[in-house]
Amino acid sequence: MVQFKFRSVYRHSRWGAHGASLRLTTVRGWATVGAGATRWYTAGMVEMDAASWEEDLVALSEGISDVLEAECDRRAVHAFFDGQNDLDQQLWARAAELGWLGLGLPEDYGGLGLGAPGLDVLYRALGAALAPGAFIPTLAVAQWLSGTAADSVKEEVLPQVATGALTLAAPASLEAEPLPVGDGLLRGVSQPMLGTSRAALAIAPVRVDGRNGFAVVRLDGARAKFEAADTWDRTRSIGRIVYDRAEPLALLADADGALNSSLRSNLALAVAGDSVGGARAIAEQTIAYMKERVQFGRPIASFQALKHRAADLMVAVIQGEQALDQAVAAAADGEPNAAMWASLAKVAAAEHFRFVADDCVQLHGGVGFTWEFDCHIFLKRALLNRELAGSAGALRDLAATYLAAASRAGRTTAELTT
To answer: What is the mean pLDDT of the chain?
Structure first.
């Protein structure tokens, strides 16, 4: 059993400019990261009280945010939005170097085994920074594969994800009809996919001999090719995959729909994390602006009507965060209601993000509508997040289905874990 010291990395090196990584140095069966660690973590479980675990997650969040603040500042994001840099590739390389891509993956495949809580920290920080790249499809799908795929697939795919050598494409939602597989080959055009033209693998909902499932397909540029489409949010890439007799690397049967539910939940948690991170970032940025913007001889933040609107922003932010906290805790604990909470968290987080981003444009006044300010980038990201992993209506219907199933099984969903 591999054990590693965790807190010292985040407390002392804080993922700073020197770029401390998470490569482990094994000594007599123990693995240490840095010096002066105060607590031990074990593969797949935490040997400490909840407060200590929470402290270390906060420290991890601060460390990731420090790096993103230095390397993904607003000037860099605007330049990427205008097609003037390759910030997405720079961040991907940096994330691989620092071990972020393996936060949620099992240690057997090069990850750190932090599961949903570790990934949630990363998703929130990336959303707050407006970070571009293929983080959501790659990490959400990799986490899904770690719990569903055969060992041979996991051994081939997951270590490459952890090192940053591989990116994945995932369905933007799971509401479209699956593609038929005939003679073991995949043909046709996929539903909208979240990924990039550099994605090496895609997850395709398929139907084989009348049964639903998923195909893991190599994107070789010939028999399977990602074709990007224009979208309003330039920090992410949406497109379709054209399959021309593509042979799947693996087929995953899903007779009972459990794999579909699991993939949807992983994507929902990722989008929700991105949404709450973005909502808090633009809300706090807007309130800071209101304290500096002077009108009629006083800061506009002192006007009673605008105070109420600022309060509404933070209420929306916290509501989204609380819904996501519950969903992440349920996923980490393997609760039977985890899929329901993931669906509801994604709806709450995305809807609140849209409300916050929209109102922040207004609260900035005229400059909020300009290309040079950040507001429009947050709003465009929020509008895309509303559609990713399923629409609000579809996810609420799905949550109602889960609730009904729990009721029939005599299981309560009212006991919160947070």
So the answer is: 87
What pLDDT is recorded for position 299? 94
pLDDT digits (tens, 9 = 90+) for 108-125: 999 999 999 999 999 999
Q: What 3-state class would DSSP assign to 165? A: coil
With b for 16 or more beta-carbon neighbours within 10 A and e for fewer, the 190-199 pattern comes to: bbbbbbbeeb
Mean pLDDT calculated for residue range 83-99: 96
The rounded distance, in Å, linking the Cα atoms of 362 and 209 is: 53
pLDDT at 45: 38
Burial, 265: exposed, middle or buried (Cβ in 10 Å; 0-12, 13-18, 19+)?
buried
Count other Cβ atoms within 10 Å, centred on residue 298: 9
Q: Which residues contact 17 (CB under 8 A, 6 or more apart)?
A: 70
Q: Beta strand 238-246 with 224-229: parallel, antiparallel or unpaired? A: antiparallel
Predicted local confidence at residue 413, as pLDDT: 83
Q: For residues 41 and 381, what is the distance between their CA atoms, to the nearest angstrom?
A: 35
Number of helices and strands (H, E) in the chain? 12, 16
Strand, coil or helix: what is 12? helix
pLDDT at 11: 28
Residue ranges of E strands in 14-55: 25-27, 30-32, 40-42, 45-46
CA angle, corner 239, sides to 235 and 244, nearest 5?
Answer: 150
